[in-house]
Amino acid sequence: MFVAPRYGTGSLADLFPSVLAGLGVPGTDDRLGLEVTAARVCVLLVDGLGADALAANPAAAPFLSGLPPVTLTAGFPTTTATSLGSLGVGVPPGEHGIVGYLLNIPGYERLLNPLAWRLHGAADKSDLRTELVPEEFQPIPTVFERAAADGVAVAQVSPRYQEGTGLTRAVLRGCAFRPQVSFGDLVATVAEAMRAGPRTLVYTYYGDLDLTGHVRGPSSLAWRCELANVDRLAAAIAEQLPPDAALIITADHGMVELEDRVDFDTTAVLRDGVRQLGGEARARHVYTRAGAASDVAATWQGMLGADFAVLTRDEAVTSGWFGPRVTPAVAERIGDLVVVSRARRGIIRSGVEPLQSMLVGHHGSLTSAEMNVPLRVVHAAGPRNIGAHWL
User: Disulfide check for 21: which of 30, 97, 158, 236 has CB 3.0–4.6 Å away?
Assistant: First the structure.
C-alpha cells in the first residue's frame, strides 16, 4: 500500500520553512506546527533512517526513541537527491526539479545523475557544472539563502566531498560550508557553528547508515549497530547545544530489502520501445521511443503484474506524487512512464548498473518503509542528561 506525500502539511519540504518561521524570517509559516522558537537551530539529516525501522529498533536507539515520535513523509521518489532538493529549497520535487536518481535532460542523450552532477554511463567524466549550471538548473532561492538574507548565520557541516558539488550548489547553496572528518569532528564543528551569531541555522548530514543499509540490508546486525552510532551522534550534538538552541533530527528516506529482481538488461520484452531507463530499482522513469508509450505500458504492466504500478507521466503528475504543481520544465524530466514497486521487488540493470544491482537495501518507492521518516526535536532547556548517559 502506497503512502501519499503530505506536501504542505507534513513533508520534508515543509521542515525548513517551519524552522525559518521560528527564527522570524519574513514570508515563512510554521507548516508543521513545530513551535520551535529557539534562536539557534541545528537540523541533522540521517541518510536512510526510515521511521518504521527506527520504531522497530528502540533498543539500538534509546535517545531517539525516548523523544516524542513524529513522522514526516519524504517526497517522490524516495531518494537522496530528490529529498535534499525538497529539504533545501522547501518545495516539492515538481518545483525544484530533482525528480529522481537518474533523469532525462532535454538535449542530452544520456541521463543526469544529480548526486554526482554528471551524465550516467558516459566515458567522459568531465565536470558539467559549467554546462548545466546548478543555480540555473534549480533557480528557486534555497531556504538557506532566505535565512541568510534576513541576517541568520547559516552553516552546513558535511563531508568535504559535498562541498561545491552540483547538487550542493543547486539545492543547498547559501551556507558557509564547514567540512567534517569524523564523528567527533562533526559534533565539535556543529557546536562551534551554532555559536556563530545571535540567530543561527546549521544543517548537518550523516551518511553511514544509508551505506550500511544498501550493502548489508536494513534488517542486519550491521545496520542496527550503525543505528546505535546515529543515536550516539544525536545525543552528543544535543549535549553541546547552547542554552537557546534546538536540535531537529530527520531523514531523507527509509529502505527495504529486495526479495526479487527483474533484470531489464536481460529481459528483451521490457526493452522494446524504450529509449532510456532512469530512476532506480524501485522507482523507474521509463523514457520511450516516439509513439511507443502505450504499448510499453501494456507490456510492462502485463509482465510485472500487480506488484508494480505503471503510470503515464500525466497520471503520475495528476496523482500528486511530485507535488501539487509541476512546472513544464520539470515535467520534461519525468519519464513517459513512471513504474513503482508495491512489493519487495525491483527492476535492476545488471549490465549497466552492476554495483547497484547487487545491493541488498533499496529505496525510491512510496511504501511506508521508504516514505515515512522520523522527526525528533530536542530543546536545550529540556532533559539534556538523557544524551549524556549515552556519550
Answer: 30
The band of 1, judged by pLDDT with boundaries at 50, 70 and 90, is confident
What pTM was estimated for this model as a whole? 0.95
C-alpha cell at 15: 521542515
Give the CATH number, domain containing residue 264: 3.30.1360.180
Phi, psi of 274 (to 5 degrees): -100, 130
Residue at 5 is within a domain: no
Q: In whole angstroms, what separates CA 91 from the centre of its chain?
A: 13
> Which H/E stretch holds residue 283?
strand 283-288
Residue 123 DSSP code: S
* In the predicted structure, residue 287 carries a pLDDT above the cut 90: yes
Residue 123 covered by a domain: yes
Q: Which residues pair with 341 in a beta bridge?
A: 308
Burial of 165 (0-12, 13-18, 19+ CB in 10 A): middle
Q: What is the pLDDT of residue 125?
A: 74
Residue 90 lies in a domain: yes
Short-list 375, 386, 373, CA closest to 62 = 386
Give yes or no: residues 160 and 196 share one domain.
yes
64-73, 86-95, 126-135, 341-350: which has the minimum mean pLDDT?
126-135
Q: Residue 108 is part of which domain span? A: 12-257+368-388
Residue 149 located in a structural domain: yes
Instruction: Reply yes or no on whether the pLDDT at 283 is more than 80.
Output: yes
Spatial separation of the C-alpha atoms in residues 70 and 72, rounded to whole Å = 7
Strand 283-288 and strand 274-277: pairing? antiparallel
